[in-house]
Write a structure and sequence with these properties.
The structure holds two protein chains of two kinds.
Chain A: H1 19-27, E1 37-38, E2 42-46, E3 50-55, E4 59-61, E5 64-67, E6 73-77, E7 80-87, H2 88-109, H3 115-128, E8 135-143, E9 146-152, E10 158-160, E11 163-166, H4 170-180, H5 187-204, E12 212-218, E13 221-229, E14 250-257
Antiparallel strand pairs in A: 1-7, 2-3, 2-11, 3-12, 4-5, 6-7, 7-8, 8-9, 9-10, 12-13
Helix pairs in contact in A: 2-3, 4-5
Chain B: E1 10-15, E2 20-25, E3 28-30, E4 33-36, E5 42-46, E6 49-55, H1 57-78, H2 84-97, E7 105-112, E8 118-123, E9 129-132, E10 135-139, H3 142-152, H4 159-174, E11 184-189, E12 193-199
Antiparallel strand pairs in B: 1-2, 1-10, 2-11, 3-4, 5-6, 6-7, 7-8, 8-9, 11-12
Helix pairs in contact in B: 3-4
The chains are: A alpha+beta, B alpha+beta.
Protein backbone atom coordinates (compact mmCIF):
# COMPACT_ATOMS: atom_id res chain seq x y z
CA UNK A 1 0.00 0.00 0.00
CA UNK A 2 1.31 3.49 -0.76
CA UNK A 3 2.38 5.74 2.08
CA UNK A 4 0.12 8.62 1.04
CA UNK A 5 -2.38 9.22 3.84
CA UNK A 6 -5.77 8.22 2.64
CA UNK A 7 -7.72 9.70 5.50
CA UNK A 8 -6.96 13.37 4.82
CA UNK A 9 -8.33 15.06 1.69
CA UNK A 10 -5.51 15.63 -0.84
CA UNK A 11 -3.76 18.98 -1.01
CA UNK A 12 -4.72 19.67 -4.62
CA UNK A 13 -3.47 18.92 -8.10
CA UNK A 14 -3.92 15.70 -10.04
CA UNK A 15 -3.58 12.23 -8.55
CA UNK A 16 -2.27 9.39 -10.73
CA UNK A 17 -2.99 6.35 -8.49
CA UNK A 18 -5.41 4.63 -10.82
CA UNK A 19 -3.30 5.05 -14.00
CA UNK A 20 -1.55 1.68 -13.67
CA UNK A 21 -4.81 -0.17 -13.18
CA UNK A 22 -6.52 1.63 -16.08
CA UNK A 23 -3.58 0.85 -18.40
CA UNK A 24 -3.81 -2.81 -17.39
CA UNK A 25 -7.53 -2.84 -18.27
CA UNK A 26 -6.81 -1.21 -21.64
CA UNK A 27 -4.15 -3.81 -22.41
CA UNK A 28 -6.70 -6.51 -21.65
CA UNK A 29 -8.76 -5.10 -24.50
CA UNK A 30 -11.24 -2.79 -22.81
CA UNK A 31 -11.59 0.62 -24.44
CA UNK A 32 -11.13 3.71 -22.31
CA UNK A 33 -14.21 5.84 -21.66
CA UNK A 34 -15.29 8.79 -23.77
CA UNK A 35 -15.61 12.12 -22.02
CA UNK A 36 -18.28 14.77 -22.25
CA UNK A 37 -17.18 17.14 -24.99
CA UNK A 38 -18.64 20.46 -25.91
CA UNK A 39 -18.60 20.15 -29.75
CA UNK A 40 -19.33 23.83 -29.78
CA UNK A 41 -19.34 27.10 -31.52
CA UNK A 42 -17.86 29.86 -29.35
CA UNK A 43 -17.19 33.40 -30.59
CA UNK A 44 -16.10 36.80 -29.35
CA UNK A 45 -15.87 40.23 -30.84
CA UNK A 46 -14.77 43.69 -29.78
CA UNK A 47 -17.29 46.46 -30.40
CA UNK A 48 -17.27 50.19 -29.72
CA UNK A 49 -17.74 50.03 -25.93
CA UNK A 50 -16.39 46.61 -25.02
CA UNK A 51 -16.53 42.89 -25.74
CA UNK A 52 -19.37 40.53 -26.71
CA UNK A 53 -18.98 36.78 -26.19
CA UNK A 54 -21.33 34.15 -27.62
CA UNK A 55 -21.75 30.38 -27.35
CA UNK A 56 -24.16 27.60 -28.29
CA UNK A 57 -25.53 25.25 -25.60
CA UNK A 58 -25.07 21.65 -26.74
CA UNK A 59 -22.90 19.13 -24.88
CA UNK A 60 -22.18 15.82 -26.63
CA UNK A 61 -20.99 12.41 -25.47
CA UNK A 62 -19.86 10.74 -28.68
CA UNK A 63 -22.77 11.12 -31.11
CA UNK A 64 -25.40 11.57 -28.39
CA UNK A 65 -26.56 14.96 -27.11
CA UNK A 66 -26.00 14.69 -23.36
CA UNK A 67 -27.08 18.18 -22.39
CA UNK A 68 -29.40 20.32 -24.49
CA UNK A 69 -28.86 23.49 -22.53
CA UNK A 70 -25.45 23.66 -20.90
CA UNK A 71 -23.57 26.85 -20.00
CA UNK A 72 -20.37 27.43 -21.90
CA UNK A 73 -19.71 31.03 -20.90
CA UNK A 74 -17.84 30.84 -17.59
CA UNK A 75 -17.35 33.59 -15.04
CA UNK A 76 -13.73 34.57 -14.39
CA UNK A 77 -14.00 37.99 -12.75
CA UNK A 78 -16.74 40.66 -12.61
CA UNK A 79 -15.26 42.19 -15.77
CA UNK A 80 -13.92 39.04 -17.49
CA UNK A 81 -15.76 36.03 -18.95
CA UNK A 82 -14.44 32.99 -20.79
CA UNK A 83 -16.10 30.64 -23.29
CA UNK A 84 -14.84 27.05 -23.32
CA UNK A 85 -14.70 24.34 -25.97
CA UNK A 86 -13.19 20.84 -25.79
CA UNK A 87 -13.49 18.38 -22.92
CA UNK A 88 -16.20 19.81 -20.63
CA UNK A 89 -14.54 18.80 -17.34
CA UNK A 90 -11.28 20.45 -18.41
CA UNK A 91 -12.89 23.76 -19.42
CA UNK A 92 -14.93 23.90 -16.20
CA UNK A 93 -12.03 22.96 -13.94
CA UNK A 94 -9.50 25.28 -15.57
CA UNK A 95 -11.82 28.31 -15.61
CA UNK A 96 -12.92 27.69 -12.00
CA UNK A 97 -9.31 27.38 -10.88
CA UNK A 98 -8.14 30.56 -12.64
CA UNK A 99 -11.24 32.42 -11.41
CA UNK A 100 -10.26 31.58 -7.81
CA UNK A 101 -6.63 32.57 -8.46
CA UNK A 102 -7.82 35.90 -9.89
CA UNK A 103 -9.96 36.56 -6.83
CA UNK A 104 -7.05 35.91 -4.49
CA UNK A 105 -4.92 38.19 -6.68
CA UNK A 106 -7.58 40.92 -6.42
CA UNK A 107 -7.52 40.67 -2.66
CA UNK A 108 -3.75 40.93 -2.64
CA UNK A 109 -3.41 43.84 -5.05
CA UNK A 110 -6.65 45.69 -4.24
CA UNK A 111 -7.25 46.33 -7.94
CA UNK A 112 -9.65 45.00 -10.58
CA UNK A 113 -8.34 42.01 -12.53
CA UNK A 114 -6.83 42.52 -15.95
CA UNK A 115 -7.62 40.26 -18.89
CA UNK A 116 -3.90 39.73 -19.56
CA UNK A 117 -3.53 38.28 -16.03
CA UNK A 118 -6.24 35.69 -16.70
CA UNK A 119 -4.60 34.94 -20.06
CA UNK A 120 -1.18 34.32 -18.53
CA UNK A 121 -2.55 32.11 -15.75
CA UNK A 122 -4.52 30.02 -18.25
CA UNK A 123 -1.70 29.61 -20.76
CA UNK A 124 0.81 28.67 -18.07
CA UNK A 125 -1.47 25.89 -16.79
CA UNK A 126 -2.37 24.55 -20.25
CA UNK A 127 1.23 24.57 -21.52
CA UNK A 128 2.51 22.77 -18.46
CA UNK A 129 0.13 19.87 -19.23
CA UNK A 130 1.31 19.83 -22.86
CA UNK A 131 -2.18 19.80 -24.37
CA UNK A 132 -3.49 16.87 -22.32
CA UNK A 133 -5.87 19.27 -20.54
CA UNK A 134 -8.03 19.68 -23.59
CA UNK A 135 -9.53 23.18 -23.20
CA UNK A 136 -9.83 25.67 -26.08
CA UNK A 137 -10.93 29.04 -24.74
CA UNK A 138 -12.14 32.43 -25.92
CA UNK A 139 -11.34 34.94 -23.17
CA UNK A 140 -12.80 38.44 -23.21
CA UNK A 141 -13.17 41.35 -20.84
CA UNK A 142 -12.83 45.05 -20.22
CA UNK A 143 -10.27 46.34 -17.76
CA UNK A 144 -8.51 49.61 -16.99
CA UNK A 145 -6.49 49.34 -20.22
CA UNK A 146 -9.59 48.83 -22.40
CA UNK A 147 -11.44 45.91 -24.04
CA UNK A 148 -9.45 42.74 -24.82
CA UNK A 149 -10.24 39.50 -26.64
CA UNK A 150 -7.93 36.46 -26.73
CA UNK A 151 -8.07 32.86 -27.89
CA UNK A 152 -6.19 30.11 -26.04
CA UNK A 153 -5.42 26.73 -27.59
CA UNK A 154 -5.08 23.47 -25.58
CA UNK A 155 -1.29 23.43 -25.97
CA UNK A 156 -0.97 26.91 -24.51
CA UNK A 157 -0.58 29.22 -27.51
CA UNK A 158 -2.63 32.42 -27.54
CA UNK A 159 -3.82 35.00 -30.05
CA UNK A 160 -5.09 38.53 -29.49
CA UNK A 161 -7.79 39.41 -31.99
CA UNK A 162 -10.62 41.86 -32.72
CA UNK A 163 -12.95 38.92 -33.48
CA UNK A 164 -12.43 35.22 -32.80
CA UNK A 165 -14.15 31.86 -33.10
CA UNK A 166 -13.27 28.40 -31.66
CA UNK A 167 -14.74 24.94 -31.57
CA UNK A 168 -16.05 22.56 -34.22
CA UNK A 169 -18.38 25.26 -35.55
CA UNK A 170 -15.62 27.87 -35.75
CA UNK A 171 -15.41 27.81 -39.54
CA UNK A 172 -19.15 28.39 -39.93
CA UNK A 173 -19.04 31.28 -37.45
CA UNK A 174 -15.84 32.76 -38.87
CA UNK A 175 -17.39 32.98 -42.32
CA UNK A 176 -20.12 35.23 -40.89
CA UNK A 177 -17.57 37.39 -39.08
CA UNK A 178 -15.25 37.74 -42.06
CA UNK A 179 -18.18 38.89 -44.20
CA UNK A 180 -19.88 41.27 -41.82
CA UNK A 181 -17.44 42.47 -39.15
CA UNK A 182 -16.33 46.10 -39.12
CA UNK A 183 -14.71 48.24 -36.46
CA UNK A 184 -16.80 50.47 -34.22
CA UNK A 185 -19.96 48.33 -34.12
CA UNK A 186 -22.72 49.51 -31.80
CA UNK A 187 -24.04 47.23 -29.04
CA UNK A 188 -27.11 46.12 -30.97
CA UNK A 189 -25.19 45.54 -34.19
CA UNK A 190 -22.61 43.55 -32.28
CA UNK A 191 -25.20 41.34 -30.54
CA UNK A 192 -26.96 40.73 -33.85
CA UNK A 193 -23.69 39.71 -35.52
CA UNK A 194 -22.69 37.38 -32.70
CA UNK A 195 -26.13 35.76 -32.67
CA UNK A 196 -25.90 35.26 -36.44
CA UNK A 197 -22.46 33.67 -36.17
CA UNK A 198 -23.58 31.26 -33.44
CA UNK A 199 -26.72 30.39 -35.40
CA UNK A 200 -24.63 29.55 -38.44
CA UNK A 201 -22.64 27.19 -36.19
CA UNK A 202 -25.82 25.70 -34.69
CA UNK A 203 -27.44 24.98 -38.04
CA UNK A 204 -24.39 23.86 -40.01
CA UNK A 205 -22.21 22.06 -37.48
CA UNK A 206 -23.44 18.80 -35.95
CA UNK A 207 -21.45 19.30 -32.76
CA UNK A 208 -23.27 22.57 -31.93
CA UNK A 209 -26.93 23.11 -31.35
CA UNK A 210 -29.83 24.29 -29.19
CA UNK A 211 -29.77 27.90 -27.99
CA UNK A 212 -27.57 31.00 -28.17
CA UNK A 213 -25.99 32.46 -25.01
CA UNK A 214 -24.55 35.97 -25.14
CA UNK A 215 -22.47 37.99 -22.70
CA UNK A 216 -21.89 41.72 -23.18
CA UNK A 217 -19.06 43.28 -21.16
CA UNK A 218 -18.51 47.03 -21.10
CA UNK A 219 -16.57 49.32 -18.78
CA UNK A 220 -18.04 48.86 -15.34
CA UNK A 221 -20.97 46.70 -16.47
CA UNK A 222 -21.75 43.22 -17.74
CA UNK A 223 -24.90 41.59 -19.06
CA UNK A 224 -25.22 37.81 -19.23
CA UNK A 225 -28.06 37.04 -21.65
CA UNK A 226 -28.65 33.35 -20.98
CA UNK A 227 -30.66 31.74 -23.81
CA UNK A 228 -30.78 35.03 -25.72
CA UNK A 229 -32.17 33.17 -28.72
CA UNK A 230 -33.93 29.82 -28.78
CA UNK A 231 -34.09 28.89 -32.46
CA UNK A 232 -34.79 25.19 -31.75
CA UNK A 233 -37.88 24.79 -29.61
CA UNK A 234 -39.46 21.38 -29.26
CA UNK A 235 -42.11 21.31 -31.99
CA UNK A 236 -44.65 18.69 -31.01
CA UNK A 237 -45.13 18.50 -27.29
CA UNK A 238 -48.02 16.35 -26.21
CA UNK A 239 -49.92 18.08 -23.43
CA UNK A 240 -51.52 14.99 -21.88
CA UNK A 241 -48.26 13.03 -21.74
CA UNK A 242 -48.14 9.25 -21.48
CA UNK A 243 -50.75 7.19 -19.76
CA UNK A 244 -49.64 3.65 -18.94
CA UNK A 245 -52.28 0.94 -19.26
CA UNK A 246 -50.21 -1.78 -17.60
CA UNK A 247 -48.80 -0.62 -14.25
CA UNK A 248 -45.34 -1.75 -13.10
CA UNK A 249 -45.33 -4.75 -10.80
CA UNK A 250 -43.75 -4.11 -7.46
CA UNK A 251 -42.16 -6.91 -5.45
CA UNK A 252 -41.38 -5.05 -2.21
CA UNK A 253 -41.99 -1.59 -0.82
CA UNK A 254 -40.18 0.00 2.08
CA UNK A 255 -41.27 3.37 3.41
CA UNK A 256 -38.92 5.39 5.61
CA UNK A 257 -40.59 8.43 7.12
CA UNK A 258 -38.22 11.38 7.29
CA UNK A 259 -37.83 13.08 10.61
CA UNK A 260 -39.63 16.37 10.94
CA UNK A 261 -37.10 19.15 10.64
CA UNK A 262 -37.01 20.78 14.03
CA UNK A 263 -36.87 24.54 14.19
CA UNK A 264 -35.40 26.00 17.31
CA UNK A 265 -36.76 29.40 18.19
CA UNK A 266 -35.00 31.53 20.74
CA UNK A 267 -37.20 32.75 23.56
CA UNK A 268 -35.85 36.20 24.34
CA UNK A 269 -36.30 38.14 27.49
CA UNK A 270 -36.47 35.70 30.33
CA UNK A 271 -33.09 35.06 31.83
CA UNK A 272 -32.54 31.90 33.81
CA UNK A 273 -32.96 32.47 37.49
CA UNK A 274 -30.39 31.04 39.84
CA UNK B 1 -15.70 -3.83 -25.53
CA UNK B 2 -15.82 -0.58 -23.62
CA UNK B 3 -14.84 -0.50 -19.97
CA UNK B 4 -18.36 0.53 -19.04
CA UNK B 5 -19.74 -2.59 -20.67
CA UNK B 6 -17.78 -4.88 -18.39
CA UNK B 7 -20.40 -4.92 -15.65
CA UNK B 8 -23.44 -3.30 -17.32
CA UNK B 9 -25.70 -0.77 -15.60
CA UNK B 10 -28.61 1.64 -15.99
CA UNK B 11 -29.36 4.58 -13.72
CA UNK B 12 -31.95 7.31 -14.21
CA UNK B 13 -33.21 10.20 -12.07
CA UNK B 14 -36.25 12.42 -12.63
CA UNK B 15 -37.60 15.59 -11.10
CA UNK B 16 -41.21 15.90 -9.95
CA UNK B 17 -43.20 18.43 -7.97
CA UNK B 18 -41.24 18.91 -4.71
CA UNK B 19 -39.98 15.36 -5.04
CA UNK B 20 -37.51 13.35 -7.07
CA UNK B 21 -37.10 9.73 -8.11
CA UNK B 22 -33.90 7.79 -8.77
CA UNK B 23 -33.90 4.29 -10.24
CA UNK B 24 -31.39 1.66 -11.32
CA UNK B 25 -31.29 -1.89 -12.62
CA UNK B 26 -30.08 -4.74 -10.42
CA UNK B 27 -27.76 -6.84 -12.60
CA UNK B 28 -24.11 -7.36 -11.87
CA UNK B 29 -22.32 -9.18 -14.66
CA UNK B 30 -18.83 -10.05 -15.87
CA UNK B 31 -19.15 -9.34 -19.60
CA UNK B 32 -21.88 -11.70 -20.73
CA UNK B 33 -22.22 -13.80 -17.57
CA UNK B 34 -24.58 -12.65 -14.79
CA UNK B 35 -23.09 -12.89 -11.32
CA UNK B 36 -25.71 -11.22 -9.11
CA UNK B 37 -29.28 -9.99 -9.50
CA UNK B 38 -29.46 -7.74 -6.47
CA UNK B 39 -26.54 -5.36 -6.91
CA UNK B 40 -27.08 -2.03 -5.16
CA UNK B 41 -26.17 0.90 -7.41
CA UNK B 42 -28.05 3.66 -5.62
CA UNK B 43 -26.89 4.65 -2.16
CA UNK B 44 -28.12 7.13 0.37
CA UNK B 45 -25.68 9.82 1.41
CA UNK B 46 -28.12 11.35 3.87
CA UNK B 47 -31.92 11.51 4.10
CA UNK B 48 -32.24 14.01 1.31
CA UNK B 49 -29.36 13.17 -1.07
CA UNK B 50 -28.93 9.98 -3.08
CA UNK B 51 -26.21 8.99 -5.50
CA UNK B 52 -26.51 6.35 -8.19
CA UNK B 53 -23.27 5.13 -9.77
CA UNK B 54 -23.04 3.31 -13.11
CA UNK B 55 -19.94 1.78 -14.67
CA UNK B 56 -17.23 -0.50 -13.33
CA UNK B 57 -18.67 -2.09 -10.16
CA UNK B 58 -15.42 -1.98 -8.17
CA UNK B 59 -15.11 1.77 -8.72
CA UNK B 60 -18.82 2.18 -7.87
CA UNK B 61 -18.21 0.67 -4.44
CA UNK B 62 -14.87 2.42 -3.80
CA UNK B 63 -16.17 5.82 -4.86
CA UNK B 64 -19.27 5.37 -2.72
CA UNK B 65 -17.13 4.57 0.34
CA UNK B 66 -14.92 7.64 -0.25
CA UNK B 67 -17.94 9.90 -0.65
CA UNK B 68 -19.64 8.64 2.50
CA UNK B 69 -16.37 9.24 4.35
CA UNK B 70 -16.08 12.80 3.07
CA UNK B 71 -19.71 13.48 3.92
CA UNK B 72 -19.27 12.18 7.45
CA UNK B 73 -16.25 14.47 7.90
CA UNK B 74 -18.36 17.37 6.62
CA UNK B 75 -21.14 16.50 9.08
CA UNK B 76 -18.69 16.48 11.97
CA UNK B 77 -17.19 19.82 11.01
CA UNK B 78 -20.33 21.70 9.93
CA UNK B 79 -22.88 19.94 12.19
CA UNK B 80 -25.34 19.68 9.31
CA UNK B 81 -26.00 17.67 6.14
CA UNK B 82 -24.53 18.65 2.79
CA UNK B 83 -26.74 20.42 0.29
CA UNK B 84 -27.12 18.49 -2.98
CA UNK B 85 -25.37 21.24 -4.99
CA UNK B 86 -22.40 21.16 -2.64
CA UNK B 87 -22.30 17.36 -2.79
CA UNK B 88 -22.29 17.50 -6.59
CA UNK B 89 -19.30 19.87 -6.49
CA UNK B 90 -17.52 17.49 -4.10
CA UNK B 91 -18.07 14.51 -6.41
CA UNK B 92 -16.92 16.57 -9.40
CA UNK B 93 -13.71 17.58 -7.61
CA UNK B 94 -12.96 14.00 -6.50
CA UNK B 95 -13.45 12.72 -10.06
CA UNK B 96 -11.41 15.50 -11.70
CA UNK B 97 -8.52 14.86 -9.33
CA UNK B 98 -8.10 11.58 -11.21
CA UNK B 99 -8.31 13.27 -14.64
CA UNK B 100 -5.51 11.23 -16.22
CA UNK B 101 -6.40 7.90 -14.57
CA UNK B 102 -10.10 8.22 -13.86
CA UNK B 103 -12.57 6.26 -11.78
CA UNK B 104 -14.50 4.35 -14.42
CA UNK B 105 -17.97 5.32 -13.29
CA UNK B 106 -20.58 7.93 -14.03
CA UNK B 107 -22.55 9.25 -11.07
CA UNK B 108 -26.16 10.42 -11.01
CA UNK B 109 -26.88 12.65 -8.03
CA UNK B 110 -30.39 13.47 -6.85
CA UNK B 111 -31.45 15.43 -3.79
CA UNK B 112 -33.88 17.83 -2.17
CA UNK B 113 -32.32 21.23 -1.61
CA UNK B 114 -33.48 24.36 0.15
CA UNK B 115 -37.27 24.77 0.29
CA UNK B 116 -37.63 21.14 -0.81
CA UNK B 117 -36.63 22.03 -4.35
CA UNK B 118 -35.48 18.85 -6.17
CA UNK B 119 -31.98 18.81 -7.69
CA UNK B 120 -30.55 16.29 -10.14
CA UNK B 121 -27.31 16.14 -12.01
CA UNK B 122 -25.04 13.67 -13.74
CA UNK B 123 -21.35 13.68 -14.59
CA UNK B 124 -19.03 11.92 -16.97
CA UNK B 125 -16.17 9.92 -15.51
CA UNK B 126 -13.94 12.97 -15.01
CA UNK B 127 -16.45 15.17 -13.23
CA UNK B 128 -18.05 17.36 -15.93
CA UNK B 129 -21.29 18.34 -14.22
CA UNK B 130 -24.44 18.32 -16.25
CA UNK B 131 -27.40 19.87 -14.45
CA UNK B 132 -30.86 19.22 -15.79
CA UNK B 133 -34.32 20.36 -14.92
CA UNK B 134 -36.09 17.23 -16.09
CA UNK B 135 -34.16 13.96 -16.10
CA UNK B 136 -30.65 12.55 -16.23
CA UNK B 137 -29.49 9.10 -17.34
CA UNK B 138 -26.33 7.05 -17.21
CA UNK B 139 -25.08 3.52 -17.92
CA UNK B 140 -24.99 1.05 -20.82
CA UNK B 141 -28.71 1.54 -21.43
CA UNK B 142 -28.32 5.33 -21.57
CA UNK B 143 -29.23 5.72 -25.24
CA UNK B 144 -32.57 3.92 -24.80
CA UNK B 145 -33.12 5.77 -21.53
CA UNK B 146 -32.66 9.13 -23.27
CA UNK B 147 -35.36 8.18 -25.76
CA UNK B 148 -37.80 6.74 -23.24
CA UNK B 149 -37.45 9.67 -20.84
CA UNK B 150 -37.82 12.31 -23.60
CA UNK B 151 -41.08 10.68 -24.59
CA UNK B 152 -42.55 9.84 -21.20
CA UNK B 153 -41.46 12.76 -19.06
CA UNK B 154 -43.68 15.71 -18.26
CA UNK B 155 -42.96 18.42 -15.70
CA UNK B 156 -44.50 18.74 -12.21
CA UNK B 157 -45.57 15.16 -11.64
CA UNK B 158 -46.66 14.04 -8.18
CA UNK B 159 -44.84 11.22 -6.39
CA UNK B 160 -47.03 8.32 -7.53
CA UNK B 161 -47.15 9.43 -11.16
CA UNK B 162 -43.40 10.07 -11.09
CA UNK B 163 -42.81 6.56 -9.79
CA UNK B 164 -44.89 5.05 -12.59
CA UNK B 165 -43.12 7.13 -15.26
CA UNK B 166 -39.58 6.44 -14.10
CA UNK B 167 -40.30 2.71 -13.67
CA UNK B 168 -41.79 2.36 -17.13
CA UNK B 169 -38.90 4.32 -18.67
CA UNK B 170 -36.31 2.19 -16.86
CA UNK B 171 -37.90 -1.19 -17.57
CA UNK B 172 -38.58 -0.48 -21.24
CA UNK B 173 -35.00 0.79 -21.74
CA UNK B 174 -33.24 -2.10 -20.01
CA UNK B 175 -35.33 -4.54 -22.07
CA UNK B 176 -33.39 -3.26 -25.07
CA UNK B 177 -30.00 -3.66 -23.42
CA UNK B 178 -28.47 -7.07 -22.85
CA UNK B 179 -26.12 -5.94 -20.11
CA UNK B 180 -28.63 -4.39 -17.70
CA UNK B 181 -31.95 -5.40 -16.24
CA UNK B 182 -33.03 -8.25 -13.96
CA UNK B 183 -35.46 -6.02 -12.10
CA UNK B 184 -35.38 -2.46 -10.92
CA UNK B 185 -34.76 -0.53 -7.73
CA UNK B 186 -36.62 2.78 -7.39
CA UNK B 187 -36.41 5.41 -4.66
CA UNK B 188 -39.04 8.17 -4.63
CA UNK B 189 -38.20 10.91 -2.14
CA UNK B 190 -40.62 13.57 -0.94
CA UNK B 191 -40.02 15.99 1.95
CA UNK B 192 -41.84 13.62 4.33
CA UNK B 193 -40.77 10.12 3.35
CA UNK B 194 -38.50 7.90 1.26
CA UNK B 195 -40.29 5.12 -0.64
CA UNK B 196 -38.02 2.35 -1.81
CA UNK B 197 -39.51 -0.19 -4.23
CA UNK B 198 -38.14 -3.28 -5.94
CA UNK B 199 -39.65 -3.80 -9.39
CA UNK B 200 -40.40 -7.05 -11.15
CA UNK B 201 -38.82 -7.06 -14.59
CA UNK B 202 -37.75 -9.48 -17.30
CA UNK B 203 -35.03 -11.81 -16.01
CA UNK B 204 -33.16 -12.17 -19.24
Amino acid sequence: MSQSSYDVPAKGGFSFDLCKRNDMLIQKGLKSPSFLKTGTTIVGLIFKDGVILGADTRATEGPIVADKNCEKIHYMAPNIYCCGAGTAADTEAVTDMVSSQLRLHRYQTGRDSRVITALTLLKKHLFSYQGHVSAALVLGGVDITGPHLHTIYPHGSTDTLPFATMGSGSLAAMSVFEAKYKEGLTRDEGIKLVAEAICSGIFNDLGSGSNVDICVITKGNKEYLRNYMEPNPRTYVSSNGYSFTKKTEVLRTKITPLMERVEITEVTGEAMEE
Amino acid sequence: MSIFEYNGSAVVAMVGKNCFAIASDRRLGVQLQTIATDFKRISKIHDRVFIGLSGLATDVQTLYQRLVFRHKLYQLREERDMKPETFASLVSAILYEKRFGPYLCQPVIAGLGEDDKPFICTMDSIGAKELAKDFVVSGTASESLYGACEAMYKPDMEAEELFETISQALLSSVDRDCLSGWGGHVYVVTPTEIKERILKGRMD
